[in-house]
């Protein structure tokens, strides 16, 4: 029996098992460390038994059953992540090829034989393992936090190589026979993987740009909403001042009447009433920010001759920030008003209905407006090809998702319905 080959086989087994465990996100403690070390010793013992009763080459044939599968089961018991455990073991197997190829390169340069290769593999095992543990393992573990489809993509190349290696070098001699389709297969896989990476990278960049545009739009809307709130608050403060100064107005009117200047008193009364009406903030609920937005859009709807009905029971203090509530209400009402304007151009009278209330610390909103029936939906979200439009819908979706809420869009009998729960 070749002692060097035996030591090399033991080294690569330990190399792969440690690397597989390091790729899994495990909160290590003394108990788990003892279990993993004991399990590794047990797997090495099983390999030793196979070598004792058969031969060292038999270990390669049964390796998936006597090492990889038990290792996956052990790691699964630690993580409860079947897909990621498989990805970790297959990725570690792929990393073993770095060790093998470097040894082949050194052997080719030095003009050595198989013994030289195995000695080189032994020598570079620990340095390579330390490098991978320090720089690669943390990066690999972060992928385990992603969605299953992302983990599947990461697992694809190691899985293809694993099957290819066993099919062409361990269970058959197709690779050594030099069959062109076999020899070029991994080059083909690398090319496809590179092209897929380019496509995914381009798609991710486009999505990132869209998110940045949406974020910029949200920031502008928040700024505008805050500005509108400040303006309305100033108007409300003026109304309070008018009420406070009512005594002075009454004194002036009394003087006018006392001097028989009735026409002048009437003009003054009309002037004061107009100023108060212009600065009036209607009260729909206890929440000041909601009242300001509802008042502003009620005024706009009245100017455009669009009937609007608002039934709101929003308390003064809610879990949603004032700026976010303003952005949500402003976008929804802006879209509703815009839809009614489009109908008005076609000679159709539209209307808007709003319902809002809070229950069990959840805010429920419903916006219903008249609309055209030809609205296009993609995955339940209305989309438009008109430039500059659709940002409001994306803003609503992004805001509701940030609060882990739920939104639905639908058209029912020529009425567009938006429901939000957050």
Features of this protein?
single chain, 422 residues, alpha+beta, Heat Shock Protein 90, 3 domains, five-stranded mixed β-sheet, two-stranded antiparallel ribbon, 7 strands, 70% helix
Calculate Rg over CA atoms.
36 Å
Q: In total, how many beta strands? A: 7
Distance between the termini: 70 Å
Helix content estimate: over 70%
- Average pLDDT confidence is 84
* Broad structural category: alpha+beta
Unreliable stretches, pLDDT < 50, 5 or more residues? none
Q: Describe the strand arrangement of the main beta sheet, using strand numbers.
A: 1-2-3-7-6
Number of domains: 3
Strand content: 5-15%
Summarize the main sheet. Answer: 5 strands, mixed
DSSP helix count? 13
**Helix-strand topology string:** HHHHHHHHHHHEHEEEEHEE
Shape: elongated
Molecular structure report:
- By secondary structure, the chain is α+β, with helices and mostly antiparallel strands.
- The protein has three domains: 3-183, no CATH class; 215-232 and 282-421, Histidine kinase-like ATPase, C-terminal domain (Heat Shock Protein 90, 2-Layer Sandwich); 245-280.
- 70% of the residues lie in helices and 10% in strands.
- The protein contains 13 helices and seven strands.
- Strands 1-2-3-7-6 form a five-stranded mixed β-sheet, with helices on one face. Strands 4-5 form a two-stranded antiparallel ribbon.
- A hairpin with a 2-residue loop joins β2 (352-359) and β3.
- α4 packs antiparallel against α5 (114-143).
- The radius of gyration is 36 Å and the shape is elongated.
- The model has no long low-confidence stretch (mean pLDDT 84).
